[in-house]
Amino acid sequence: MPSTTAAAPATTAADRVYRHIKQGVLDRRYEGGTLLTEGELAEAVGVSRTPVREGLLRLETEGLIKLYPKKGALVLPVSAQEIADVVETRLLVEEFTVHRAVPAPPALLARLEELVAAQERHAASGDLAAFAVEDRCFHAEIVRHAGNQILSRLYDQLRDRQLRMGVAVIHAHPDRVAQNLAEHREILAAVRAGDGERAAACVRAHVGRVSSLLRGGVA
User: Fold this and answer.
1) pLDDT tens-digit map of 166-178
2) How far apart are CA 89 and CA 83, in angstroms?
3) pLDDT single digits (tens) 4-57
């Protein structure tokens, strides 16, 4: 009997360009203010210029780059307004959902432990980009367990912005790695204890410190 399993969609050259540039922006290989040229990108990915243009157009619609005809694509810096918007949205969603996630089921507690342990491994190996991904997953896991699918989808829309900002903070403030882990442990302890008020206060303090660093303050 022939297999009924659907084949995975083929990855196009434009997809490869899109992923290459996007990952470079998120992990700061391509920092804000960097001008990318079609020729350099085509050579880096091993494709012609046509799929490079297609990939760049997708990234422009996501607000990560700005295209300049005959010049290239400028990686857009993170603006003060973007920081303010992301922080405000995170606080609204995360404080509410951490309350809803308490009392936490064993599966959530186990998953949060796994994510903190993964962060510890990435911190030890110096993989800051992977550390930032696990950071974001830790908070997203709590949001998902609150049971509000609309809020979960809204939070997922912040994913790329959160990753980019998280990597920026860690690169600028290496001591933030240990602080981040300690604060995640505090959040997890409050969730495990079933203390929604304490968990929300920990989330508020945690996001507030990140916001202060992003804006050039001292956490």
Assistant:
1) 888 888 888 999 9
2) 10
3) 555 445 689 999 999 999 988 888 889 889 999 999 999 999 999 999 999 999
- Return d(Cα 183, Cα 174) in angstroms, integer: 15
β-strands 35-36, 65-68 pairing: unpaired
Interatomic CA distance for residues 150 and 173, integer angstroms: 34
DSSP 3-state helix, strand, coil percentages of the chain (rounded to 5)? 70, 5, 25
Give residue for tokens 């996501």. Answer: 62
How far is it, in rounded angstroms, from Cα 7 to Cα 109? 35
pLDDT attached to residue 10: 62
Measured between alpha carbons, how far is 26 from 61 in angstroms, rounded to an integer? Answer: 16
Closest CA to 211 of 100, 85, 102, 93: 85
What pLDDT is attached to residue 218? Answer: 38
Distance CA 34, CA 169 (A): 18
